[in-house]
Design goal:
The chain is mainly alpha-helical. The protein is built from 15 helices and 14 strands. The protein binds protoporphyrin IX containing FE. Residues 56, 64, 67, 84-85, 96, 230-231, 234-235, 238-239, 242, 279-281, 283, 308, 335-337, 341, 343-345, 348-349 line the site of protoporphyrin IX containing FE (HEM).
Length: 396
């Protein structure tokens, strides 16, 4: 994808997009608010806040059955379900309701000490070096640890989880072989976990799903697999990306870093502003019937991207949309989506993000990017830094 054909050949898997997403959204918002892409089976790409909200709320016309757009076909046609994110009402309502207790504030609060401990432990491992990779040595470990805890799985399998998530979100949508191999490995691994929990129940999500009921019936194995896969896909790359992007901003904008150090009370609004400006998650929908949407002739079965990060930088919705304002007052961002699928893990994500940033600011002296031209961003529907080298002075 080059600058010239971004309106008709939008490609969220291109390196051009990974490096220039902010400029691409701005160009589209000004010149072509609903872009398209023949490469992804006539995919539509709205970029305005109001259009994205309208589509997200219209679940009759825009189904969630395939929330990730693959080049080769709709995810749902391969029998893959990750409810509730891949479900429409009324099934969505029942499955979401089922998961609610697992995200209750008391459960999130109970995980906070683990995040604080882990953040400090990770910082201990590089604080004497004067440098670290914030994506690899810090941000990625926090959500993996928490998701492992929620699933009742050993920490040692964290690398395996990260690999699956990378394969599913960054490689599989354009490579059917990676998709099939990773899914097989995933099913094999979780089949053993499910069998184990049936004999040795624990206080974890797998046991919870095994015993859960929808409409007076137990969940099928496929639904239990789907619930586990959802947690991996929704909870790891997303939070990793949000933590990484926030550190990237603070390391490249020392004035904001100093403001946060001098006035810790703005942490809450700063976190919301990072979530707005660097929202990592773009979701997808599938058009359910032929429809003319704002002059675009959408056909039944067309995929459609919902780039919530673009909505968050729409100047019609936010004053100084491209400016990071740490104490921004009105901030109705869509980082966690909008409508019935709004993120179930938002409180958990906010807690992980706040602890990760606060602990880093408290423990490290002023830090900056080691090489501003050598930051690597992920491709696909979850966008965040995957190489983020940071340097700081060592206090001896
Ligand atoms: C900064 C981190 C995160 C961001 C930016 C994020 C973003 C989102 C977005 C945009 C949606 C809406 C999907 C749609 O409209 O189709 C969503 C849904 C969801 N998220 Fe998150 N998420 C984050 C972290 C988490 C975590 C940590 C978990 C759980 C461990 C989680 C679990 C879910 C679930 C279960 C849904 C589906 C809700 C439904 O379909 O009703 N998320 N997330």
């Amino acid at each position: 994808m080059s600058d010239i054909n971004v309106k008709e050949s939008f490609d969220h898997f291109s390196q051009y997009y990974a490096q220039n997403a902010f400029e691409i959204w701005k160009k589209l918002q000004n010149e072509c608010p609903i872009a398209s892409s023949r490469k992804y089976r006539n995919m539509w790409v709205p970029t305005k806040y109001s259009d994205i909200e309208e589509i997200a709320r219209d679940t009759d016309t825009f189904s969630s059955r395939s929330p990730v757009v693959a080049e080769f076909g709709a995810m749902a046609d391969f029998g893959l379900q990750v409810p509730p994110i891949s479900a429409d009402p009324p099934y969505h309502t029942s499955f979401r309701r089922l998961l609610l207790p697992f995200f209750a504030p008391s459960r999130i609060e109970a995980l906070k000490d683990t995040v604080v401990y882990l953040a400090n432990d990770l910082i201990d491992s590089f604080i004497d070096n004067g440098e670290f990779d914030a994506a690899l040595d810090y941000a990625q470990h926090i959500p993996v640890k928490i998701i492992s805890e929620m699933l009742g799985i050993r920490d040692e399998d964290g690398d395996q989880f990260r690999m699956w998530v990378h394969n599913f979100l960054e490689l599989a949508p354009t490579d059917i072989t990676v998709a099939a191999t990773s899914l097989l490995q995933f099913f094999e691994y979780f089949q053993k976990q499910i069998e184990d929990r049936k004999i040795n129940p624990k206080d974890d999500l797998i046991t919870f799903l095994i015993n859960a009921q929808i409409d007076d019936r137990l969940l099928s194995d496929q639904e239990i697999f789907g619930g586990c896969l959802l947690l991996l896909l929704a909870g790891i790359d997303t939070t990793w990306s949000a933590i990484g992007a926030s550190i990237w901003h603070l390391a490249s904008n020392l004035e904001d870093q100093r403001s946060l150090r001098n006035d810790p009370d703005i942490l809450g609004s700063a976190i919301e502003e990072f979530l707005r400006a660097f929202a990592p998650v773009t979701m997808a929908r599938e058009v359910t019937k032929d429809v003319d949407f704002k002059g675009c002739p959408m056909k039944k079965g067309d995929p459609l991207l919902l780039p919530f990060p673009a909505a968050n930088r729409d100047p019609e919705a936010f004053e100084n949309a491209d400016k990071i304002i740490l104490n921004r007052e009105r901030n109705r961002h869509f980082a966690f989506g909008v409508g019935i699928h709004r993120c179930l893990g938002s409180n958990l994500a906010r807690m992980e993000l706040s602890v990760a940033i606060e602990t880093l600011i408290v423990r490290l002296p002023e830090f900056e990017l080691k090489n501003p031209n050598d930051v690597k961003w992920s491709v696909g529907q979850v966008r965040g830094p995957r190489k983020l080298e940071i340097k700081f002075k060592v206090n001896r």
